[in-house]
Amino acid sequence: MFKKKLFKNNKSIALIDASKNKTYNYSEIESFKSKFEKNFKNKSLVLLLTSNSIFSILSYISLMITKKKIILLLINEDIKEKFIKKIIRIYKPNYILTNKMLNLKRYNSKKNFENYFLLENKSINNENLNFINKLLIPTSGTTGNPKMVRLSLKNLNENTKSIITSLNIKKTDTTITTMPMSYSYGLSIINTFLSKSAKIVVCKDSIANKNFWKYFNQYNITNLNGVPKFYEFLNKLRFENIFKRSLRFITQAGGNLDLKYKKYLYNLSKKNKFVFYVMYGLTEASPRVSVLNVNKNKNKIHSVGKPIAGVRVKINLSKKNSKKGMIEIHGRNICLGYSEKLCDLKKSDENNSKLISGDIGFLDKDKFLYILKRKSRISKIFGLRINLDDLEEKLLKAGIKAKCLTNDKFILVNIFKFSNKEKIKKMIYETFGINKNFIKISIKNYIPKNKEIK
């Protein structure tokens, strides 16, 4: 993924701290890594609370390319402290990299890095873990659910190479952060751009902030990446009036984008000569599965494209004479399996390069993939991956019996008896980080269907 030759004596810019207008070249990444890795013992588990910051990215890269046997667990910094402590209790990391003041028994401050603390628990021994496991990413980003996707370096390498080829990423490209790096889509952008010696502008501001567009223009961004809500908001901002001529391509993943927005982006890309890609993926696939170049395949605009190199898609037909069914994915990018507790990290590859996605779809005669519906209970709202079972469980603990559904634009919370709707929305926001504008509350004495979400 991040090959040493990319770093050695490479003076080209890798990372730009937008707020400080400070740059880091590839040689400086290697220099940082050489010093940083000395703080960690071999055969250890490290929890990194991630943010869109230079230090967070440098820490990630360093621990991924070190020759030491280290398993890295990524959690977004915005997760509630009680959930962070829950994950720490379950996984018992040797080290914690955090920008929060966590009061933890047996963890002592080993070193400070700007606004980050390196905490160490010397009493923990994780030497018997299976270090084919390299990276752990949560299946539900904000709920504190300890279920993680287990990824190997080979999984990430395979997918990174395929994405670079499919999107034709070049050394001269520059992107800007638009989503958390603990989200597999956001992380894959870091992996692909740095593996190609391209540039990443590191920015904490959202597209609603004028600073984002200041940096967008200042650094001649060639690539934008976003989930459906990102592009819906760009439409409201009238992207056609603010986009930069340097823009070479945009990518969309993380759920289905409405046809009207796809057509808007297609027309804009055609007129202004940049490429519009739609992608399909899952964290379990490291994460990309397929890519559609909309500009070249306007008649396939409802599709998510063809499988990328090294990935094969099979449809398990639901009925005879039916062309739709469960999507099965094969490739060396498929994760090793899941973990829900520390002892699961002793496991090796349980999937053997095969994944039943939980999504229903079909392949057309030209082998383009179409997604009809998701069978899984995962919602993707503005880059947040929410397990609806977790949401229902949290509501029940608060005394609210509910059934939750989603269409990846809104979450519908159906409550079975009258309760204060605003209070429920506030609780969901405080627990999961979902903006109340994306939550709909209904009161019905039956379980509603997805088509009722409007």
Structure report:
The chain is of the alpha/beta class. It has eleven helices and 26 strands. The chain has helices spanning 4-7, 26-36, 54-65, 81-91, 153-167, 184-195, 210-218, 228-236, 259-272, 388-397, 421-432; strands spanning 13-17, 22-25, 44-50, 70-76, 95-98, 108-113, 116-120, 135-138, 148-151, 174-176, 199-202, 223-226, 249-252, 275-281, 288-293, 306-307, 311-317, 325-331, 337-339, 354-363, 369-374, 378-381, 384-387, 402-406, 411-415, 439-443. The protein has an eight-stranded mixed sheet, sandwiched between helices. A five-stranded mixed sheet has the order 12-13-14-15-16. The chain is globular, with a radius of gyration of 22 Å. The model has no long low-confidence stretch (mean pLDDT 91).
Main features:
alpha/beta, globular, eight-stranded mixed sheet, single chain, five-stranded mixed sheet, 454 residues, 11 helices
Number of strands: 26
Helix/strand class: alpha/beta
Main sheet: strands, sense, barrel? 8 strands, mixed
Beta-sheet strand percentage? 25-35%
Radius of gyration: 22 Å
Q: Which spans of ≥5 residues are poorly predicted at pLDDT below 50?
A: none
Strand order of the largest sheet: 6-7-5-3-4-8-9-19
Q: Which percent bin holds the helix content?
A: 25-40%
Number of helix segments? Answer: 11
Shape: globular
Average pLDDT rating: 91
How widely separated are the two ends? 42 Å
